[in-house]
Design a protein that fits this description.
This protein is mainly alpha-helical. It contains 6 helices and 3 strands. Helices cover 45% and strands 9% of the residues. Helix 2 (24-37) crosses helix 3 and helix 3 runs parallel beside helix 5. The radius of gyration is 16 Å and the shape is globular.
Length: 161
């Protein structure tokens, strides 16, 4: 018997289906398109990579930061900085952005660690590049955990005397 894989969030599952619906060559084209659609950093982070975490597992210099709202769902927002000359890496960031940005923290934390392998890209890119996407997901989840285990920003100032 084989274990049933943990379900992906809806947007991630639909994107994975899109990747599997096309040929290996077309998957790389889809990845390139996602790299071109990755939003630029907002002004509060632009030019300030010291406020972002570097993803050392990536061959290219990729940085990310996670923000978590104080709403009931603890909505997650993802921001990436990846060089245009690294379209594969930037495409991986695009997959994660499209799939996870705007989800509740619990949904992001529930994403299975093997999710990067569910896009059929392991056959099209090197294992080292796949390691980069796994590193991005791992750091996103770690930052979400850090931001949801701490008191809200407004309350934090009141608790420290």
């Amino acid at each position: 018997m084989t274990d049933t894989p943990t379900a992906l969030p809806t947007a991630m599952s639909e994107l994975a289906q899109d990747f599997h619906a096309v040929s290996q060559r077309e998957r790389l084209q889809l990845l390139l398109e996602l790299s071109q659609e990755l939003p630029a950093l907002p002004p509060r982070y632009a030019g300030q990579l010291d406020k972002l975490e570097r993803v050392d597992e990536c061959q290219s210099p990729v940085f990310l930061v996670v923000e978590v709202d104080d709403d009931a769902d603890r909505t997650v927002h993802l921001f990436f900085d990846a060089p245009a000359e690294a379209p594969t890496t930037k495409g991986f960031a695009g997959i994660l952005h499209v799939s996870l940005d705007g989800l509740p923290a619990a949904a992001v934390l529930g994403v299975p660690d093997d999710a990067p392998y569910r896009f059929g890209l392991a056959e099209a890119v090197s294992p080292l590049r796949m390691r980069g996407m796994i590193g991005m997901l791992s750091r996103i989840k770690r930052q979400v955990r850090l931001r949801t285990d701490t008191p809200a920003a407004g309350a934090a100032g009141q608790e420290h005397r």
